[in-house]
Amino acid sequence: MLDGHTVLLTGASGTLGRSLFKNFVSRNCRVVCLTRNSEEFMNLVMRDSCHNDLVLVIESDFTEDDWSSDVKSQLLSQSLAPSILINNAAINTPFGTSKDIPIKEWRDNFEINFFSAILLTQIFLELRNPETQSWIFNVSGGGVTHKPMPYFSPYACSKSALIRFTECLAIELQDQDVSVNAITPGFLASNIHQPSVSDTTKLPKEIREKIVRDFNAGGQDPNKTFSLIQRIVEVGSMKFSGNLLSPIWDTIDDIQLSQETVNRDIYKLRRINGDE
User: Fold this and answer.
1) pLDDT at residue 47, as a whole number
2) Is this structure's pTM higher than 0.90?
């Protein structure tokens, strides 16, 4: 059961973040929400929430120095030991041809999409209760795993790095009651796409039009991502770790969720040998 877990959630103001937040608090979880704009979060989510006593909101800008120190100090001051970490913060800017994107903008993307996850993982592992089971979920982009994403290179590269970090960490923690998995929620109709939808100069027409079509179609249901996370936690197997999963494309039963997978190639980033 999820009841009683403490969840550390980044990207709380986005479409997926709001869905995860509402689902967790409705199941009596304590949720620590990290967001760049706490006022916006309060207006979007907390205004209609009847679970305010279960929520701690920490304003965090991952491009600024020392944000992690503030997060850690606030968790310590509240005597909070999270048992579930969800690294959901992401941007898909800058976009355009790789040669034209300034290196500082590449670095800003990695600070949010990749390095924030590493820092929060380190904090989480330091503060978690070592006598209880813990779960880390890194929200990644499914598109980057099976094809290039031209004109979105910073996003594609940072999300690919996050998946490989997931695999490495899972092996390192396989004897420590910590399960680590990456989840790709599919295309979400989120404000993350507004810059690329609005821009008519940096993207080829066919790429921009596909984004607009997918956005107008409503995207995938973010509640499916929560349902997958819930199943992984409730099955409770620490052996199920190091995987990249999709709530949209993967059909996986509870028996599979309890099996050893950290050393298997299924649900991993691997080159397929066509001769075998």
Assistant:
1) 66
2) yes
